[in-house]
Amino acid sequence: MAEKLLIMCTHGPEDPELSTISFVMATAAQASDVEVLVGLQGNGVWLATKGTAEKINAPSFPPLMDLQEAYLEAGGKIFVCGPCIKSRQINPEMDLIEGASVVNAATFVNEAMESKNVLVY
Fold first, then answer.
1. What is the mean pLDDT of residues 17-45?
2. Domain of 89: which CATH number?
3. pTM of the prediction?
4. Which of 21, 22, 57, 106 shows a CA-CA span of 20 to 30 A to 71?
5. Residue 30, Cα to own-chain centre: how many angstroms?
6. For range 18-23, the mean pLDDT
């Protein structure tokens, strides 16, 4: 069984660098044969909304859209905090990208407990 890494991102478009680093680390881990899960909480949930990743380009990093697509194409999963999207009036059926799943706190806790490490951005 491959090692598992949970990457939690709490930053969205307001911080392009930290938003992008989350997916840089996710794709790097996948390339190292590590099972990766990206969790989005707080403003990080905006990264799972349609049209957002295309607008995020941190200096010296690949475009977030390219990283996100590569992560998902390699089998990555994106878990999105249910209460966080609700407080931001994000409609999960209409607004979220394909590959994003809405979860609750218990799911994040379970994933953290099953992971060898957790990175938070």
1. 97
2. 3.40.1260.10
3. 0.95
4. 106
5. 14
6. 98
Do 85 and 102 contact (CB within 8 A), yes or no? yes
Are 47 and 68 in contact, with CB atoms under 8 Å apart?
yes
- DSSP character string of 56-104: ---TTS--HHHHHHHHHHTT-EEEEEHHHHHHTT--HHHHBPTTEEEE-
CA distance 39 to 4: 13
Residue 2 is predicted with a pLDDT of 74
The count of domains in the chain is: 1
Strand ordering across the sheet containing 77-81: 100-103, 77-81, 35-40, 4-9, 117-120
Residues 34-64 have pLDDT tens digits of: 999 999 999 999 999 999 999 999 999 999 9
| Residue-number span of the structural domain to which 54 is assigned | 4-120
